[in-house]
Amino acid sequence: MNLAHLAAERAAEGRPVRAGLIGAGKFGSMFLSQVPTTPGLEVAAIADLDPDRARQACRGVGWDESLVARTRFLDDGTTLCGEDLDVVIEATGHPAAGVVHALAAIEAGRHVVMVNVEADVLCGAALAERARRAGVVYSMAYGDQPALVSEMVDWARAAGFGVQAAGKGTKYLPAYHEVTPDEVWSHYGMTPDSARAAGMNSQMFNSFLDGTKSAIEAAAIANACGLEPPEDGLAFPPCGVDDLAHVLRPEDVGGQARGRGVVEVVSSLERDGRPVFRDLRWGVYVVLEAPNEYSAACFRQYGLPTDPTRRYAAMYKPFHLIGMELGISVLSAALRHEPTGQTRRFSADAVAVAKRDLVPGDRLDGEGGRTVWGKCIPARRSVEAGALPIGLAHGVALVRPVARGEILTRADVEAIPDGPATRMRDEAAGLLG
Ligand SMILES: NC(=O)c1ccc[n+]([C@@H]2O[C@H](COP(=O)([O-])OP(=O)(O)OC[C@H]3O[C@@H](n4cnc5c(N)ncnc54)[C@H](O)[C@@H]3O)[C@@H](O)[C@H]2O)c1
Ligand SMILES: N[C@@H](CCO)C(=O)O
């Protein structure tokens, strides 16, 4: 509990932690807004395809002109990795670019904070292995839900509890799988203009709604925490915070969880569209299993809601603060050499499912787009079926029809050009476990 003290020491010594940010979009801007008030942390360089927009992002979040003038602005993330930095933050959200940038950062001896969970799910186990060999930290992004869940799972296990289930909340209805970026803002109660003014990318926010981001995050949590992914997609049970233990205890004791030690995403809407009472739309949770009768009794004595067996109880965090909490990862990597959550194996995947009947010639447009949504399944099943990872479902055309709701395979699309992303994906598939 001394991260701020460690950072303050660096500030007093005149040696702030030097970070570089790749991707100054919504997440990046939220991080940048906190930098001037985080002693001991400096963002020395920012790379974005549009460096002027990145400069404007800094001004827009309140940086003064002297801070803007002291910062290097670049248009290439790989070049940024060669700057004098302790930590590289990858926040482009583009899976293939994320892999290229992470490899460049590792090669340059920089710690990597991988905001780009899309790239992490594609091949994070292989990137983590490369980072280990290079002696640098490869970390999940604190503030995003997978890192917060990883922290809660670690907390539970380090305190001697069993972890029955863990995950996050979201706003989900089955019909959302087919929403496109054209309709997305009505589901957030926003107009396209107000969303644009807030710097919110419609395709990115559609991936939060159409189930893709939930699948990606659930896979990341499973891969980081050693939890089991669903066999055929998340169930998204409607569930409020007081019912987590009840709903997510195992099926054989009356719950809805398909097994023990599972990852699941709970919905803030009942299936008929009514709001769930005390929902967890923006939060994260862990369902604990008491290791013995004594600790089960303590749950009740100290006020935790339990399921009827009294063995299961839950802890949750109601909100995640996205980029505003990212300094925790950056400082932890640089000052403690510790990741805030890390992909440790490749046991869960997020694969592309057709949003509508697709025909030869249709070109895929990736996460949150008009053609596919992402489903969380076991990595073993994905590899055996030759399923198309959602992170590779960008810019390639179909060579045969795929019916709405079906998982796409690599044989359904034209050959994906070889590159770092495909190579690291193959490396990750070799680490299946
Ligand atoms: N926006 C959120 O609320 C939110 C929440 C949680 C996690 N995230 C994660 O944050 C990441 C970014 O999301 P976002 O919402 O900020 O997206 P965004 O589209 O707002 O921003 C991405 C930025 O990266 C830049 N970029 C894209 N490709 C690049 C490249 N090759 N080199 C350099 N810059 C490049 C773009 O120009 C843009 O400024 C994603 O991985 C997403 O999953 C976002
Ligand atoms: N993951 C969130 C969005 C931002 O992290 C959601 O599912 O709505």
Shape: globular
Provide the spatial order of strands within the biggest beta sheet: 3-2-1-4-5-6
What is the assigned CATH homologous superfamily of the largest domain? NAD(P)-binding Rossmann-like Domain
Number of helices: 17
Average pLDDT value? Answer: 97
State the low-pLDDT regions, or none.
none
Class based on secondary structure composition and strand pairing: alpha/beta
> How many whole angstroms does the radius of gyration measure?
21 Å
The CATH topology of the largest domain corresponds to Rossmann fold
Explain what the structure shows:
By secondary structure, the chain is of the alpha/beta class. It folds into 3 domains: about 5-145 and about 325-335, Rossmann fold, CATH 3.40.50; about 145-170 and about 210-320, no CATH class; about 350-430, Type Iii Antifreeze Protein Isoform Hplc 12. Helices cover about 35% and strands about 15% of the residues. It has 17 helices and 14 strands. The chain has helices at about 5-10, 25-35, 50-60, 65-70, 75-80, 95-105, 115-135, 145-160, 185, 190-195, 200-210, 210-225, 245-250, 295-300, 325-335, 380-385, 420-430; strands at about 15-20, 40-45, 70-75, 85-90, 110-115, 140, 160-170, 260-265, 285-290, 310-315, 350-355, 365, 370-380, 395. The strands form 4 sheets. The protein has a 6-stranded parallel sheet with strand order 3-2-1-4-5-6, sandwiched between helices. It has a 4-stranded mixed sheet with strand order 8-7-9-10. Helix 6 (about 95-105) packs parallel to helix 7 and helix 7 (about 115-135) crosses helix 17 (about 420-430). The model has no long low-confidence stretch (mean pLDDT about 95). L-homoserine (HSE) binds next to helix 12.
